[in-house]
Specification:
Helices cover about 30% and strands about 15% of the residues. It is α/β, with parallel strands linked by helices. It has one domain: Glycosidases (TIM Barrel, Alpha-Beta Barrel), CATH 3.20.20. Helix 8 packs parallel to helix 9 (about 335-344).
Length: about 350
């Protein structure tokens, strides 16, 4: 839960909307042309026989005044967001809710962007909800992996399930997904590194996603993963927000510094060059003004708490300021920092 704090209005740079991008070319998708061959080989993920280095962001587009998940609007933001993502050289996005709109998936495929599709985020739903979700888009060429849970070791899938209950549910969900779709890997998203017992308790998980916030470096994360498991792993969340509680004030330059340092360290440790990870999905694409539960979704609040370590430079999770573009899609310096890391 975020801490209550006096609201602050967005800085002036957020006031101008970017120009409307040119529309993406259409993609015709049919079950007979269901896309790519996705395989795992040791620590690597292969797409059509070639290793893929994940260069991505977390994408959860919620407009000003709306809340998650009811206000989530992939369809409304797709054209603008995907055009901006192409500028970065992205090849993957990770969602927090099921992305089942085939029109949006078509646009992502046209841009060369895969999806790590969160098909079971909330433990209040029965396990078998994944069946129809998987059937809806399992043939789509934008699909890379299915994701189950997000930091469930912290949140009990948001409904307070005990750890053993969460593990049992994830095993049930994973089995159902694989029964419907044996052609795509299943990943689960964990807060920091799991221990050996947790890894062993989820034998159906093909790829582990790790959310880690450790300042300006990942420290021993890659070395420790190599000692824990031979499975593929990616950084499913990392980065820094653009508000510095130490000032206090808006600090996009420190955010950009962290994004540049962490992304380059991550790319230096990917499996395509013998490292431990597949790459990562930076947190996050755009600001979300709904996150302070005691604030207003129409105002950008500061402050907040989250489990795990802490972001650079203040070790404070300012929950509504994480975007490399603001809520109106104006790029921050971190946007250019990520572009350089991914394309130069």
């Amino acid at each position: 839960m975020s801490l209550a704090a006096p609201p602050v209005l967005a800085p002036p740079v957020m006031a101008e909307l970017p120009d409307e991008p040119a529309p993406l070319p259409p993609v015709t998708v049919t079950p007979a042309a269901s896309g790519h061959v996705i395989e795992l080989s040791g620590r690597q993920l292969l797409v059509d026989g070639q290793p893929l280095q994940l260069r991505g962001v977390c994408w959860n587009p919620v407009p000003v005044g709306a809340v998650h998940p009811e206000g989530l609007d992939f369809t409304g933001f797709a054209a603008l967001d995907i055009a901006r993502m192409r500028e970065l050289g992205l090849n993957v996005v990770r969602t927090y809710e099921p992305l089942l709109d085939r029109g949006v998936l078509d646009q992502l495929a046209a841009a060369g962007i895969f999806v790590i599709n969160s098909v079971y985020p909330w433990g209040g739903a029965p396990a078998d909800v994944v069946v129809e979700r998987v059937r809806a888009v399992r043939t789509h060429p934008a699909l890379l992996m299915w994701a189950v849970g997000n930091e469930w070791n912290y949140n009990g899938l948001y409904v307070g399930l005990e750890p053993a209950e969460v593990v049992a549910r994830l095993n049930e969900v994973t089995a159902l997904i694989k029964e419907e779709d044996p052609d795509h890997p299943v990943t689960t998203i964990y807060g920091e590194l799991p221990d050996a017992a947790t890894l062993a308790a989820l034998p159906g998980i093909d790829v582990w996603g790790i959310n880690a916030y450790r300042g300006l470096s990942f420290g021993d994360l890659f070395e420790r993963w190599q000692g824990l498991s031979g499975l593929p792993m990616f950084l499913s969340e990392y980065g820094a927000d653009a508000y510095n509680a130490s000032l206090p004030g808006y600090d996009p330059d420190s955010q950009a510094q962290a994004v540049a340092a962490l992304t380059r360290e991550l790319l230096d440790n990917t499996a395509v060059s013998g490292g431990a990870s597949l790459g990562g999905t930076l947190f996050e694409w755009a600001d979300e003004w709904w996150k302070d539960q005691e604030g207003s979704p129409s105002v950008q609040d500061v402050g907040g708490v989250a489990p795990g370590g802490g972001p650079f430079p203040d070790q404070v999770f300012n929950e509504e300021w994480w975007g490399i573009v603001d809520v109106q899609r104006t790029p921050r310096p971190a946007f250019e920092a990520l572009r350089r890391a991914y394309t130069e």
